[in-house]
Amino acid sequence: KAKADGRNTCRFYKPEFTERILERVRLERQLRQAVDDDQFVVYFQPQYELSTQNIIGMEALIRWQHPDKGLIFPDSFIPLAEETGMIIDIDRLMMRASMSQFKSWLADGLKPGVLSMNLSMLQLDQDDFIEFVKRCFLDYELEPASIMFEVTETQAMLKPEQTVIALKQLSALGVGLAIDDFGTGFSSLSYLKKFPVNKIKIDRSFISDLPEDRDDAELTRAIISLSKSLNLDVIAEGIESKDHLEFLLCHHCDEGQGYLFSKPVPAEKMRLLLETSVKNQPERVVQT
Ligand code: C2E
Ligand code: MG
Ligand code: MG
Ligand code: MG
């Protein structure tokens, strides 16, 4: 009788729940395979000086070319990669792939500006990371000044004291540093001053409803003026419309990226954008 009751507690059993766990196990196994085979592809999104619309750099964004499922976006696997620690290998694969591509554009005389790459905070805890970065600069013959790393505000603020130390080590190499998704975490002003960062990236959730949403408009203006008073560069992400652009220009946001200019694109497409952008620069037009 007691046994029967015990079995009854299984009435909460949900097949979808088991299915979800199995799916996660499968995904984890496939992600490990993806790391072993390097099934990742780098997409690049150009970044612009808003006043001239010249390309000043690009952000490398990961895609997973899954053997059966096609192209998978980072939001579907980066969280699992973080949980399992696989993000450390993944970010290093991405860094090598992005830098190698970036180098080839420089070698061809293009002007790709600054290469920006996203880093997990887990990476900054690795003792050999600084050595790894230095190794990459040698392997791809890149100047540290042409490289920027982005860490999200949320991750940076998890252990802010540790972040300060880690970012100082990176910054000492001569690379640029940016706080990503700014406005979604809870930075205190004192930490923002202590982080040795060069740039603030306004999260795209603040941009999407500009200029109508008054709170977002107020916050965006506040972040821009905060950046200026701390002597930091500021870039807006997720610029999708002329209205967004106009608002940002009007409030002196210097840089931006977004679908209005270009979606993240594969390397061949990025090369075309760089070639066109060089042609559009006045001095080149005079030469040809
Ligand atoms: P993020 O670094 O904040 O990158 C910006 C995201 O906004 C990208 O999404 C980009 O495709 C998207 N985006 C850009 N412009 C627009 C726009 O105008 N409208 C809209 N709706 N979206 C826009 P994506 O590529 O899906 O990447 C998502 C996040 O995944 C990134 O956010 C970043 O946090 C993470 N991530 C991407 N690549 C890497 C990587 O190599 N390493 C690590 N650790 N994280 C990465
Ligand atoms: Mg980013
Ligand atoms: Mg962002
Ligand atoms: Mg984001």
Automatic annotation (TrEMBL):
<protein>
    <submittedName>
        <fullName>EAL domain-containing protein</fullName>
    </submittedName>
</protein>
<feature type="domain" description="EAL">
    <location>
        <begin position="24"/>
        <end position="278"/>
    </location>
</feature>
